[in-house]
Amino acid sequence: MIHWLKAFRPKTLTAAVVPVLVATALVPALGYELLWWVSGLALFSALCIQLATNLFNDAIDFKKGADQSDRIGPQRVTQSGLYSVRQVMMMGAVFVLLAFVSGIPLVMQGGWPIVAIGLVSLALAYAYTGGPLPLAYLGLGEVFVILFFGLIAVGGVFYLHTMTLHPAALVAGLQVGLLATALLVINNIRDREQDLRAAKKTLAVRFGLKFSRIEILLIYLLALALGVYWFQQGQWLAAFLPLVVWPLVRQIIHQVFFTEPGAHYNELLGKAAVVHILFGAQLVFAFVVMGLMP
């Protein structure tokens, strides 16, 4: 079982959890009724899709040669021989099925927009690294993460509660999605040489290390700068509380710019995950306070 936990990549699951929590806190903050069963099922579905994506990525990257014996990132169960490609793919399919079943009540609640989001999300769990046009191999990973672990995740959960969209949900979604994307960029910088050999054309491979360093800087600056929206709306807590992550963000940016990619980037990934969680937690707290105010 412990080997399956490695395959699940628990440190990455914040990408699925944080947007659901942010959207859930935002619903009552804007005066709408909170439906706990909606948030619960949305969280379970999001986790299942994330787990399926991780498993498919583990198996497919090994098949395509992106994960080899000289890998410097965390251990991958297929590459290390702990499980076969078939076993890992089958486990991924189980989570796709669980996401599909748990999504049925959400479809009944939200209608055709949720059908579209659900089907595309399920398909991209595999198509992120598999299929004829794998997003990660075409340099579209960043777009995928911002959309599905940011804008669509927060906006979709908010829509399921309210049957409407609100600019606040999109701003919060973009902030959360950008910070999740930072993890992907750091990962791609670390794995650039291996990805180059495997023809995995991430943006780090296509445009080089300098581009990716600037990309990290812009991602973090934009995520924090979007706090201006909350300030303009008179929501000071949402504007300023998330800035508590700035010292850690500075550390990440400094290390990305002034150290060469290597195994120590695994530590950077941990820091980026903490930024993502802490930023989301501050937004949630701010929205809860907002909802309690008369």
Keywords:
Farnesyl Diphosphate Synthase; mainly alpha; 75% helix; globular
Give a concise summary.
By secondary structure, this protein is mainly alpha-helical. It is built from 13 helices and no strands. It has a single domain (2-292), classed as Farnesyl Diphosphate Synthase (Orthogonal Bundle).
Helix/strand/pairing category? mainly alpha
Poorly predicted runs are none
Beta strands, count: 0
Mean pLDDT across residues: 89
Q: Termini separation (Å)?
A: 49 Å
Q: SSE order, as H and E?
A: HHHHHHHHHHHHH
Coarse shape: globular
Number of domains: 1
Description:
By secondary structure, the chain is an all-alpha fold. It has a single domain, classed as Orthogonal Bundle (Farnesyl Diphosphate Synthase), CATH 1.10.600. 75% of the residues lie in helices and 0% in strands. The protein is built from 13 helices and no strands. The protein has helices at 2-8, 14-29, 36-64, 85-110, 112-127, 141-162, 167-190, 192-197, 203-225, 227-232, 236-240, 246-258, 265-292. Helix 12 (246-258) packs antiparallel against helix 13 (265-292). The chain starts with a helix and ends with a helix. The mean pLDDT is 89.
Could you outline the blueprint of secondary structure elements for this entry?
Elements: H1 2-8, H2 14-29, H3 36-64, H4 85-110, H5 112-127, H6 141-162, H7 167-190, H8 192-197, H9 203-225, H10 227-232, H11 236-240, H12 246-258, H13 265-292
